[in-house]
């Protein structure tokens, strides 16, 4: 998996491409968390629409658990709140049942998965002008 990260007006946009694997997903998530800390980002758009693969249910569970734990341990003491993560994915990487999302949320992560960019941007609170620009990516 390859990850491109860009800081944009208070948001962090991460774009993942390639074949999903659990080890690569963990590596790229930690890379994204480093960028979150570096840019002091509070809102993260993870665009994985070009990811390929079909994660198994156990992988969804393990990734959700890993991500929530990583966010909790990377969070600086006294930080006002946990960062907000929006994942945009396509099936079969996207799980319409949102099992991995549920696992992460139940462990304290502020995350939601989407199958379209517009809903993800709206949930993150991007202004309409930013939505039009961001929808091009």
Structural features, described:
A 5-stranded mixed beta sheet has the order 1-2-3-4-5, with helices on both faces. Strand 3 (43-52), helix 2 and strand 4 (84-88) form a beta-alpha-beta unit. It is built from 5 helices and 5 strands; from the N terminus they run ββαβαβαβαα. It is globular. It has a single domain (2-134), classed as 2-Layer Sandwich (Transcription Regulator spoIIAA). The chain is α/β, with parallel strands linked by helices.
Keywords:
single chain; 137 residues; alpha/beta; Transcription Regulator spoIIAA; five-stranded mixed sheet; 5 helices; globular; disordered C terminus
**Residue windows where pLDDT falls under 50 for at least 5 positions:** 129-137
- Average pLDDT figure: 90
- Can you summarize the main beta sheet? 5 strands, mixed
CATH topology: Transcription Regulator spoIIAA
Share of helical residues: 40-55%
Q: Report the CATH C-level class.
A: Alpha Beta
Give the distance, in angstroms, between the N- and C-terminal Cα atoms. Answer: 18 Å
Task: List how many beta strands DSSP finds.
Answer: 5
Tell me, what's the shape? globular
CATH architectural designation: 2-Layer Sandwich
- What would you call the structural class? alpha/beta
What is the CA-atom radius of gyration, in angstroms? Answer: 14 Å
H/E element order: EEHEHEHEHH
Question: Could you give me the name of the CATH homologous superfamily?
Answer: STAS domain
Strand content: 25-35%
Number of domains: 1
Number of helices: 5
For the largest beta sheet, what order do the strands appear in spatially?
A: 1-2-3-4-5
């Amino acid at each position: 998996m390859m990850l491109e990260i860009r800081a944009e007006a208070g948001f962090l946009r991460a774009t993942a491409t390639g074949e999903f694997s659990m080890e690569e997903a963990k590596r790229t998530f930690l890379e994204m968390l480093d960028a979150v800390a570096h840019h002091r980002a509070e809102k993260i758009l993870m665009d994985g629409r070009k990811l390929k693969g079909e994660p198994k249910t156990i992988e969804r569970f393990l990734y959700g658990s890993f991500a929530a734990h990583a966010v909790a341990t990377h969070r600086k003491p006294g930080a006002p709140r946990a960062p907000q993560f929006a994942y945009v994915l396509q099936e079969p990487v996207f799980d319409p049942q949102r099992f991995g999302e549920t696992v992460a949320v139940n462990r304290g992560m502020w995350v939601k998965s989407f199958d379209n960019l517009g809903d993800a941007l709206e949930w993150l609170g991007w202004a309409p002008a930013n939505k039009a620009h961001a929808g091009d990516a």
